[in-house]
Amino acid sequence: IQFTHFQVTPGVNAEPTWTVSLLPLVSGLALSLFVAILVGRINVSHLREMVSLEIAYQGGAMILEDNNAQRVQIRLSELLPPGMR
């Protein structure tokens, strides 16, 4: 079997250059950025869900303790972070 497109001519360097590794480098960087963005979004949604669960738990406990709706609402609004108000 002869592979004519892989013939090496005398005097030409047959070793791969740094450009061969450029495509995997760029692909790896793009993939790592994509994964980092996904992990960040999952983390943010997880934190929002945990805040919601904490507010629901605290709200239930406050309603059992004190059945005044205005006081419960004021105390629960203090638990919200500024970005979720």
Can you walk me through this structure?
The chain is an all-alpha fold and 85 residues long. It has one domain. Helices cover 62% and strands 0% of the residues. The protein has two helices and no strands. The longest helix has 44 residues, at 22-65. The radius of gyration is 30 Å and the shape is rod-shaped.
Keywords:
2 helices; mainly alpha; 62% helix; 85 residues
Summarize the amount of helix as a percent range. Answer: 55-70%
Distance between the termini: 72 Å
Biggest β-sheet strands, sense, barrel? none
Kindly estimate the percentage of residues that lie in beta strands according to DSSP: under 5%
How many domains, as an integer? 1
Q: Kindly state the number of beta strands.
A: 0
Q: Could you give the order of the helices and strands?
A: HH
Question: Could you provide a short overview of the structure?
Answer:
The chain is built from two helices and no strands. The chain has 85 residues and is an all-alpha fold.
List the helices and strands and how they pair.
Elements: H1 22-65, H2 69-77
